[in-house]
Write a structure and sequence with these properties.
about 350 residues, alpha/beta, Rossmann fold, 3 domains, six-stranded parallel sheet, 12 strands, disordered N terminus
């Protein structure tokens, strides 16, 4: 990229100086003004990631799921913009696509491949072990024992979910709140368990008896998928019929169906978003969200790519917490006093004074 520096201001300055010189009769000044302006050209240095190919394989939710696939891809776009890497994307229509998509990117020589979701754990492990010279990072999975070229990107989402459970219990008018998951896997149930403990904490602190539907600490309600908006509507309706007026779906696009039901309920049900600020990512139903539990996957994805660009590889797992800003809560429609109370709880979790 080339730039011409300060042409307009230089021209004005020269013109003004010429007038002064003429008035003063200064031959030397006139000669100086007569000199041609030298135009300096600059060439912007290439960004550090030029020549690096960063690739991403989604799970079946797709890159436009308004949730964790989409925010993962936001980290890819940030790396493209700020580091200058070239990015590529393959979306998985079913779990049968995981291995072929990964093989395609290995054949292409992707310097780092980011896979999105716990369900890609086995396929990513196989790809990493078969391609020791390439780097991998996987959202919501960490290998034990560790794989040298595969970084786990995991998040203590029970922490902000605890905060969301507390504020849901505080804001419920019926004394009943609900949650449910897409599939019964640890990256889903960790949200639900944190939410349950937050409701319990509210009951203990306030002497209340708010009831939680959908998760008892061991088992609960699951859609069995991350795709069906109809399932999300049906589960939300079922929990609303049992009295829940705030529902926390941990189910990717399935949760969009619950938001639609809440919108159609005319305020009878409100929703806690997941992964991203759903009042922003799902603007058509923004009015139904009171808060969202944030999992800042984009920052973790960007960091993994940056490490590869800088030559340090993917040597350790990333764990996002309240303390390091890797997780959090976005407040959409929470009274100021309650927001301050919940933020204080978050600070207590972060510094260890509140155990969950």
């Amino acid at each position: 990229m080339r730039k011409h520096k300060g042409l307009k201001s230089a021209a004005l300055a020269i013109a003004a100086f010429a007038l002064i010189a003429s008035a003063c009769g200064s031959d030397d000044a006139t000669e100086e003004v007569a000199e041609e302006e030298e135009v300096t050209e600059e060439t912007t240095a290439p960004l550090p990631g030029a020549g690096t190919l960063a690739c991403m394989v989604t799970d079946t939710g797709g890159v436009d799921d308004k949730g964790f696939n989409q925010i993962s891809y936001a980290g890819m776009l940030q790396a493209e913009s700020e580091l200058g890497v070239t990015i590529d994307l393959l979306e998985s229509a079913s779990d049968a696509d995981y291995a072929p998509n990964l093989q395609s990117f290995a054949d292409k020589g992707c310097n780092i491949t980011v896979t999105v979701g716990f369900l890609l754990g086995d396929a990513t492990k196989a790809a990493a072990e078969a391609n020791a010279g390439l780097s991998y990072a996987i959202v919501d999975y960490a290998y034990d024992p560790a794989i040298a070229n595969a970084r786990g990107l995991v998040f203590a989402t029970d922490q902000p979910s605890f905060m969301a459970g507390y504020l849901s219990a505080a804001m419920s008018k019926t004394g009943i709140v609900g949650t449910y998951g897409g599939i019964n896997i640890p990256p889903v149930t960790i949200f639900m368990e944190g939410f349950r403990k937050g409701v319990e904490y509210y009951n203990t602190q306030k002497g209340a008896t708010v009831k939680l539907l959908g998760w008892d600490g061991k088992d609960g309600t699951f859609a069995g998928n991350f795709d069906s908006l109809d399932d999300g509507k049906n589960i939300a309706k079922s929990q609303a019929d049992e009295g829940a007026d705030i529902i926390f779906p941990v189910a990717g696009p399935v949760g969009l169906g619950s938001a639609q039901y809440a919108l159609e309920s005319g305020g009878k049900v409100r929703i806690i978003g997941v992964d991203v600020d759903m009042s922003v990512s799902n603007p058509d139903a923004a009015a139904v969200y009171i808060a969202s539990v944030l999992k800042k996957i984009d920052a973790a994805v960007f960091a993994a790519i940056k490490d590869v660009v800088e030559g340090s590889g993917v040597t350790d797992n990333y764990v996002g917490t309240l303390a390091n800003g890797g997780v959090g809560v976005a407040f959409t429609a929470v009274p100021d006093a309650l927001k301050a109370e919940v933020e204080a709880i978050g600070a207590g979790i972060a510094d260890g004074s509140i155990k969950i």
